[in-house]
């Protein structure tokens, strides 16, 4: 059963926010300075007790290298969540290092709180993971949309996804990551093999 992002996602994201800041070797003061806010306000954003404005979110995201939309998924996408929560679709953002910065509707093998800030090969290792990472690298290096069929062995069987990848761009049209939309076509694929 797919997970929807709610209360637990907010805290998973904020945990990820701390991890990514530390991975980049930045202090709360440095991020706050680049976002034009005081450190105490940034600390509240990081611990999940406050949300940034759109402008502040853009500066924080630019400093840490992720999409600012990650801050506002719950508030802005209720129709999106309702439409896709029971669909065979997984949507995700990754940074240039292929670390997840946002994910919606992952397979139950992947807990939201363990996904943020990690690459696919840190979550599992199989040919599907390698193929997915290669697709993402190709999207980044070619700066163009790419799609392909990728199969994954998961805990409840083999799954086949049609994965659409495209560059995630900042406001200067620079590639800052990858957006993927993966549609489960396992049943369709099984029917065509018979």
Structure overview:
By secondary structure, the chain is an alpha+beta fold. It folds into two domains: 7-71, Orthogonal Bundle (434 Repressor (Amino-terminal Domain)); 83-193, Beta-Lactamase, CATH 3.30.450. It is built from ten helices and five strands; from the N terminus they run ααααααββαααβββα. It has a five-stranded antiparallel β-sheet, sandwiched between helices.
Produce the secondary structure layout:
Elements: H1 7-23, H2 28-34, H3 39-47, H4 54-64, H5 73-76, H6 78-84, E1 89-95, E2 100-104, H7 112-115, H8 120-123, H9 127-142, E3 146-154, E4 157-169, E5 175-184, H10 186-193
Antiparallel strand pairs: 1-2, 1-5, 3-4, 4-5
Q: What does this entry show, briefly?
A:
By secondary structure, the protein is α+β, with helices and mostly antiparallel strands. It has ten helices and five strands; from the N terminus they run ααααααββαααβββα.
The CATH H-level superfamily of the largest domain is: PAS domain
Strand content: 15-25%
Uncertain segments = 1-12
* SSE topology string: HHHHHHEEHHHEEEH
Helix content: 40-55%
State the name of the first-level CATH class of the largest domain. Answer: Alpha Beta
Could you say which overall geometry the principal axes of the C-alpha atoms support?
Answer: globular
The figure for the number of domains is 2
Strand order of the largest sheet: 2-1-5-4-3
How many distinct helices? 10
Q: What is Rg?
A: 17 Å
Please count the beta strands (DSSP E, at least 2 residues each): 5
Termini gap: 26 Å
Mean pLDDT: 81
CATH architecture of the largest domain: 2-Layer Sandwich
């Amino acid at each position: 059963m797919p997970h929807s992002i709610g209360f637990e996602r907010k805290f998973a994201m904020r945990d990820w926010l701390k991890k990514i800041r530390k991975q980049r070797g930045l202090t709360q003061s440095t991020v706050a300075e680049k976002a034009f806010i005081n450190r105490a306000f940034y600390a509240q954003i990081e611990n999940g007790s406050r949300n940034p404005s759109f402008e502040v979110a853009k500066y924080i995201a630019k400093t840490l290298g992720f999409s600012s939309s990650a801050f506002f998924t719950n508030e802005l996408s209720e129709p999106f969540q309702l439409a896709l929560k029971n669909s065979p679709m997984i949507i995700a953002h990754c940074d240039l290092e292929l670390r997840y910065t946002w994910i919606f509707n992952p397979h139950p093998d992947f807990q939201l709180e363990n996904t943020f800030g990690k690459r696919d090969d840190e979550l599992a290792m199989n040919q599907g993971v390698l193929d997915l990472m290669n697709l993402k690298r190709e999207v980044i290096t070619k700066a163009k949309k790419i799609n392909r069929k990728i199969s994954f062995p998961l805990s409840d069987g083999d799954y086949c996804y049609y994965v659409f990848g495209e560059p995630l761009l900042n406001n200067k049209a620079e590639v800052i990551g990858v957006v993927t939309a993966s549609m489960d076509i396992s049943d369709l694929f099984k029917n065509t093999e018979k």
